[in-house]
Structure formats: C-alpha cells, structure tokens
Amino acid sequence: MPKLLLAAARTRPVRASVSALPMTHKMVRRFIAGPDAPSALAVTKSLRDQGLAVTLDVLGEDVTDRAQAAATAAAYRSLLGSLSDAGLADRAEVSVKLSALGQALGADGDKIALENAFSVATAAAEAGTTMTLDMEDHTTVDSTLGVLRELREQHPWVGAVLQAALYRTEGDCRDLAGSGSRVRLVKGAYAEPASVAHPRKTDVDAAYRRCMEILFAGQGHPMIATHDMALVADACALGRARGDWELQMLYGIRADEQRLLASAGVDVRVYLPFGTDWYGYYIRRLAERPANMLFLLRHLGS
Ligand code: FDA
C-alpha cells in the first residue's frame, strides 16, 4: 500500500492537487514547523521548553542546480548562527539531505555535496552543536556513507541515518557502532525493490530490533528513531542498562508520548522540518499511514 501511494504521489494530478494546499493548512502544519527559519525557531523554543531536544531540517531534496545546492548550505549555516544567537544550540542540531546539497549533480555530485556538507558541519561546530546526514533511497547509501567517512575525519560527531528495511543495514550498523559514532536508526520511508529491502513490514520490524541490539552493544551513541511503541519499550529497556542513547520521533507524530517519555527521564529529540519545499517530505508522512492519505483524499475531493 505505501508503495502504491508513493507511486500515485509522483503523478502530475496528485502533485498538483496536494501542492495547491496552502502551507497554513492544518494538514500540512501538523508535520511542518512553517515556511521559514523564524517559524522553526519559535517551534524549537516551544519544544525545548517542554523538555524536548530538536533536529532541524531545511526542507528540499533532489536539487539539480549547483546554485540551489549552495543556497541550501547557506540556509543551514544561517540557521545554525540563529540557533546559537537564540541560545538554542545546546538543544538543537541539524539534519541534512545530501541530495539537497548537490549529491545528484552528475559525476561531481559527491564532491559538491561533500563541500557543502563540510561547510554546514563547520558551522555546526562553531555553534556548538551537531549535524546528522539523512538517508534517502537505496541508490544513495554508498555515496552518503562515503561522504560521512570524509566528514568524520574532521568532525567525528557527524551522525548518519541507517534504514532497517535494507538487507545491508545490519552490516552497516556493525561498521558504525564504534566509539564516537552517532547512528539514527529508522525503518525506512522509501519504496524499495525486494532485491534490496525486506518487502514485509514484520520482517522490517524484526530487522529493526536486530539493528538496535547491534547499536546498543557497540560503543557509539544510538539514536532510536521510531514511533513503534513496542520498539520504544525495548529501546528504553536496553538503554537503561547502558545510558548514552536517545529516542527520536517526527514532529506531529505521537506528540503526547514524546512529552511523557521526556518527563520520565528519556532523552527525546524531535525531527522538525521547515521550508516551502514540503511536498516530498509530506507525502512520505502520508504514505506511512494510509489513514493519513485517505483523510487528505477526502479533503481534496470535498
Ligand atoms: P511504523 O511505521 O510501524 O509506525 C508505528 C506507529 O507510529 C504507527 O502505527 C502509527 O501509530 C505511528 N505513525 C508512524 N508514522 C506515522 C505517520 N506518518 N502519521 C501518523 N502516525 C504515524 N526515513 C528514511 O528513509 N530516511 C531518513 O533519513 C529518515 N529520518 C527519520 C528521522 C526520524 C527522527 C524519524 C522518527 C524517522 C525518520 N525516517 C526516515 C522515517 C522512518 O523511516 C519511518 O518511515 C517512520 O518513522 C515510520 O516508521 P515507524 O518506525 O514510526 O514505525
């Protein structure tokens, strides 16, 4: 079902109808802080005051223009300066998609994305915070982990996302479970072929549990990113014995549980996207839960 929804989302009529929703619409604002950095900073402050840490995402992906990739890197650097000025950098970091920094720009894509990502990581270090590389579809994993390796030579705290849905990920978890490593473990939001990813959700869930155990057995800082409360309970049990880990959830999903867990002493971080290029992110959130998509279709049809 999610695969069908993601395929439908690529068609022109669906894209046109959904993109016509105003950003102010509550169906969009549920998942997205707002159109610009000031709105994201306001939400960050509010989440911080509720005991939650934040990771901020400047929305945008699959950039095919070098100037746009440079502009996105500049937007991140400016955001990091604002976080520092507002006294929020101890509770807020940034999440970056390499495809927004130029990864898809042909043969030089990796080099351009690395240069842009390096400038963002340097700005994060100056602000006193960290950066994590998001993971996109399976064709980008080798490139993203290659950029991560280079960034970590200078900035060993740069984190990465690994997707339990991919067969390769248990091995990647072992490789990245060493000291100083920060890994955000997710199930995976992209429609992937069965040649590279578990087709059945129950197998993804089982793989997630195995990956989580590998990360908790290692020396790094596991970032357990899920709204699956059975996995959250397992993570809390594993984390109690070990310390130095965090739980992460998306803005707009299980907000009550985020606050409850934080007040119970769990380190909880909220992934908070903002910006005007919200279509791709929003559609992945709808596809994760068919009820969300049906709600939207009813709205568009009314
Ligand atoms: P699952 O899909 O089983 O959901 C468990 C429960 O959570 C559902 O039953 C429902 O109650 C609730 N829920 C989940 N999604 C919902 C939604 N959209 N709307 C309403 N309720 C929902 N993926 C990726 O491929 N690359 C990445 O870089 C990232 N980054 C990332 C960061 C963070 C902090 C998080 C939490 C997630 C990501 N993801 C991601 C997305 C991830 O891969 C996955 O698609 C979602 O987290 C949904 O999977 P769950 O683990 O929540 O489990």
Automatic annotation (TrEMBL):
Protein's UniProt name: proline dehydrogenase
Cofactor names: FAD
Keywords of this entry: FAD, Flavoprotein, Nucleotide-binding, Oxidoreductase, Proline metabolism
EC identifiers of the protein: 1.5.5.2
Name of the top EC class for this enzyme: oxidoreductase
Domain of life where this protein originates: Bacteria
SUPFAM superfamilies documented for this protein: FAD-linked oxidoreductase (SSF51730)
